[in-house]
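Take a record:
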Amino acid sequence: MKKFFLIAAFALALVSCTQKAPKYANRAEAIVAQIHDPASKYVVVTVHRGDWRNFPENSIPAIESIIRMGADIMELDLKMTADSVLVLSHDADVKRCTNFSKVFRDEPGKSAKVKDLTLAEIKRLSLKRAHGVAIDTLHMPTLEEALLCCKDRICVNVDQGYDYYDQVLAITEKLGVTDQILIKGKKPIEVVAAHEAAYAHNMMYMPIVDIQREKGKALFDSYLEQGVVPLAYEVCWGDNSDNAFDEACKRIIAQGSKVWVNTIWASLCGGDGNDDDAAFQAKDPGEVYQQYLDKGVSMIQTDRPELLIGWLKSKGRHTL
């Protein structure tokens, strides 16, 4: 009997030694690798403000929900409180997304702007679902609380946050999540380079280019002319009658970068028939989404994560 156990133990040890160690320490690390690989066929799915159809936008449950769906990036928005704490809020004020009017009904002159409220006051407010019903148990999270939820599980796109770069970086370094954070902006190359030079360790950065507007086109051209290759470009366009989007995709891919598109609103992706709502109403979501894959798009921000992820998986384009 002892001999059998010794043989079994030896065999188990041999198998353990010959098995390869996991390539990535966690799922967030695996996603980051796809973002950094311009040749990857994996389509990275970013979810706009989390699962806001089922939970309050930018809330912890909204984040947890998209993690369960298999999303890759949580897009969140930042504002700073009166006592200098970064919280998740798209709007400058809290009226739309919280029960502010009820909580402060005895203070008619009270400002609802995040910048005028302390964190303690923010935490008194209950978040609302998209249809306006407040949930007493849910409150606006701080950036630190949100990043703790996301750590090692999903990457994070900080929107409306470049002006808080120093404060965001300090938090990501404290939590050890800097490598899984993507921050976007419209600043000139020189400004971003100078900013990043001030730190030994930085978040991922991606420029936003509206290729049919003067400033957006100028920013895009500056990257190409100077030979600066970002991880990806967030490309926005109003219509494709001039083939501006098609040409931008060709130039970006030839440069060795990636293309990010926003299918959340038609106005950001070429007009009616090109967005998530059109895909939701179509018999086959591919009637909308396939055009982006055909043009080399490999990062999509969506308001319909389950629909998009399910379709991408059926095409073999969303398996890590």
Observations:
- The radius of gyration is 22 Å.
